[in-house]
Amino acid sequence: MLFKIEQGLFTAEFTDYHAVLGVPVDAEPKDIRKHYLKLARRLHPDSCAKESESDRKRAAEFLSKMVNPAYEKLSDEKNYTEYQLLLKLKGQQALRQQDTIMLSSDVARKLATERGAIEAAYQNALKSLASEQYHHLDRTLELTGQISELNMIYLMRKASEGDMPAMGGPRPAQSAAAGTAATGSSPAATAAPTATAQKTAPTRESIVASYLRRAQEFENKQNYTAAIKELRDGLQIDPQNGTTHCRLGVVYMKANQATMAKIHFRKALEINPQDTVAQQGMKRLDPNNQSAAAAPQHNAPAKGAKTPPKSGKSEGGGLFGLFGGKKK
């Protein structure tokens, strides 16, 4: 996304598509589509005829570069399945890092102080922001960031309760449901496909493998920029995947970005000191350093190990201690 937003779930490698559209993270497909069509009408040039030229141009850019791409992501079944898992992991990651999170909006801070169930407060706060999101174009990015902070708080609370929200989005059962309306068949007929779809949900490993596969295809075509993007997206799913770090090292080396290649080769060796590809990559990049291929041993946690809390930090859980201490 060309517009820079740094609040909430947004990072250099991750876009909060729900926040862009102003819908909750557990919104149903029909509600996402309904709200998207409303935004598309609002931002269409014909709807902005009475506004200034600068506002018409800004509205067109928001529609083409933010709203349309976000809806394409959330309406595509394959992309959404991966994105759904990534959202869950984002919530868990934010919970682990809660001591370092700074909320920039009063509405997010208020939601963070809610006791007990926060579904109603979350929905009401988000709806209020979304109603203004694309009506004041000079504040659109600010309001989108605030909505993303609400999404982050909601996901963190659900992660702390061990109860991730049932995400909306495309499901195989959608077409079956449409068939029910057309033919009058019983709802029970569509229950089995839904259960089957839930049982066959992709694993983290299979999703990372798909990123690695696509990256290899781009690498074979010498499209290193696209390959790097796929691999970095894969690290969003599993940051401790040694294979992905190693492949990033290889691609960065081919792209003549030696510094980035070294970073990822070293990370690959932290995870797996016996990774021969990473060892060879380090030797090639730094042939005069005999220890370059050695895996760093200083306090490198084993895969899956928890990082010890920093001194001086409260162990009661950040963000006002509302999410509880870290699970043992």
Core attributes:
328 residues, mainly alpha, globular
Poorly predicted spans: 171-199, 295-317
- Helix/strand structural class: mainly alpha
| Amount of beta strand | under 5%
Got a strand count? 0
Radius of gyration: 22 Å
Shape annotation: globular
Distance between the termini: 38 Å
Write the element-wise H/E pattern from the N-terminal end onward. Answer: HHHHHHHHHHHHHH
The chain-level mean pLDDT equals 79
How much helix is in the residues? Answer: 55-70%
Main sheet? none
Helical stretch tally: 14
Describe the 3D structure.
- This protein has helices spanning 17-21, 29-43, 53-75, 77-96, 106-112, 119-133, 140-160, 173-183, 188-199, 204-220, 224-237, 242-254, 258-271, 276-285.
- It has 328 residues and is mainly alpha-helical.
- Among the domains are: 17-160, no CATH class; 204-285, Tetratricopeptide repeat domain (Serine Threonine Protein Phosphatase 5, Tetratricopeptide repeat).
Layout of secondary structure:
Blueprint (H helix, E strand, L loop, with lengths): L16 H5 L7 H15 L9 H23 L1 H20 L9 H7 L6 H15 L6 H21 L12 H11 L4 H12 L4 H17 L3 H14 L4 H13 L3 H14 L4 H10 L43
Helix pairs in contact: 2-3, 4-7, 5-7, 6-7, 8-9, 10-11, 11-12, 12-13, 12-14, 13-14
In short, what is this structure?
The protein has 14 helices and no strands. The protein is mainly α.
